[in-house]
Amino acid sequence: MMKLKQGLLLFLAFIMLSFGLPKNIQKKVDKEIKDVFNIESFALNEIIIANKIAESLPSKFNHNNLFKIEADNTLLGYAYLSQASSKTAQFDYMVLLDKDLVILKSKVLIYREEYGGEIGSRRWLKQFIGKTQNDDLRYGDNIVAISGATISVRSMTNAVNDLLKSLKVLHTKNIL
Asked: What range(s) does the FMN-binding domain occupy (predicted)?
């Protein structure tokens, strides 16, 4: 009987956690959207991509990671949230795009390593601003390296590059 109750509690906790973003991430996302789009109120509406399409894309698209940003029933842009690998863990990041799928801002939301956190600096992340689905990002070429953060820099570069490639496919298929 006790195991049944514990199982039920775990199941309920899982169900409750699967709705919406974690509070600490939601706060950061809201703040960035308000700052970038210069608005106070907006709607963040999840975009659901069919599994068959999502599986064929280089970026991961799952529950609660691709959103339309709307205000007064007008599309302002998109938000993409995901994780990328660092040396021994993963870090959470966000990319904000305008309605034409041009990157407006990228942000490292949570970094879990002792070293390499410099990738979260505005100065380094600003090199993604203005990139589009037609850009090809290359570590050490058009993306600057950071000493001591090689794995995280390569990971973030690859993640944004994969996102841009995925956006191109989604745009071609009229999903975005």
From this structure: 86-167
